[in-house]
């Protein structure tokens, strides 16, 4: 299924709407303000929290946890490399590779592609298209995309 993440430009803190192929809002992301480390809540459009994303502070390399129903299900770690970005998703066995500077990358489980991400250009605010494979966990895939966006935004600042 294809999803579209659209950042709200004039908002206090991080806010994203996530739409499906028909343009219906299916998820909403809201960030906490005035916290140590990035904290995001991924919720259904109706308000039910599906995932809580929180940054591990005081870590040499960026490290984020994805919690669902109060338990950490995955940790996204930016790997130490000299000339390119690489991420692993501990707990799910996924890895992420591609062109992060142009926001064109994929999430893999071994050689199997879980999701493909591409930036939508010429829009107000950041917008991304995420194509999640049939039968794959969209909440985990979207959480990984949100984390990578947070890491790249932090590096730009």
The parts where pLDDT drops under 50 for at least 5 residues are none
Give the strand order, joined by hyphens, for the main sheet.
1-2-3-4-5-6-7-8-9-10-11-12
Oligomer: single chain
Number of strands: 12
Measured as a percent range, the helix fraction is 10-25%
Report the sheet-strand fraction: over 45%
At the fourth level of CATH, the homologous superfamily is LURP1-related
Radius of gyration: 15 Å
Shape: globular
Look at the helices and sheets and give the structural class.
mainly beta
- How many DSSP H or I helices? 1
**Main sheet makeup:** 12 strands, antiparallel, barrel
Topology record:
Layout: E1 2-7, E2 15-19, E3 25-31, E4 39-44, E5 49-55, E6 63-68, E7 71-78, E8 87-90, E9 94-99, E10 104-109, E11 112-119, E12 127-132, H1 138-156
Antiparallel strand pairs: 1-2, 1-12, 2-3, 3-4, 4-5, 5-6, 6-7, 7-8, 8-9, 9-10, 10-11, 11-12
């Amino acid at each position: 299924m294809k999803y579209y993440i659209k950042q709200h430009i004039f908002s206090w803190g991080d806010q994203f709407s996530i739409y499906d192929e028909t343009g219906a809002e299916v998820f909403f992301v809201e960030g906490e303000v005035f916290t140590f480390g990035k904290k995001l809540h991924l919720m259904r459009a109706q308000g039910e929290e599906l995932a809580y994303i929180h940054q591990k502070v005081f870590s040499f390399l960026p490290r984020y946890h994805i919690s669902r129903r109060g338990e950490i299900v995955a940790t996204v770690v930016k790997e130490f490399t000299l000339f390119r970005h690489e991420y692993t998703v501990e707990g799910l066995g996924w890895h992420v590779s591609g062109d992060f500077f142009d926001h064109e990358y994929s999430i893999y489980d071994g050689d199997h592609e879980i999701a493909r991400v591409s930036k939508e250009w010429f829009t107000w605010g950041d917008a991304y298209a995420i194509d999640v494979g049939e039968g794959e966990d969209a909440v985990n895939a979207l959480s990984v995309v949100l984390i990578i966006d947070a890491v790249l935004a932090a590096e730009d600042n």
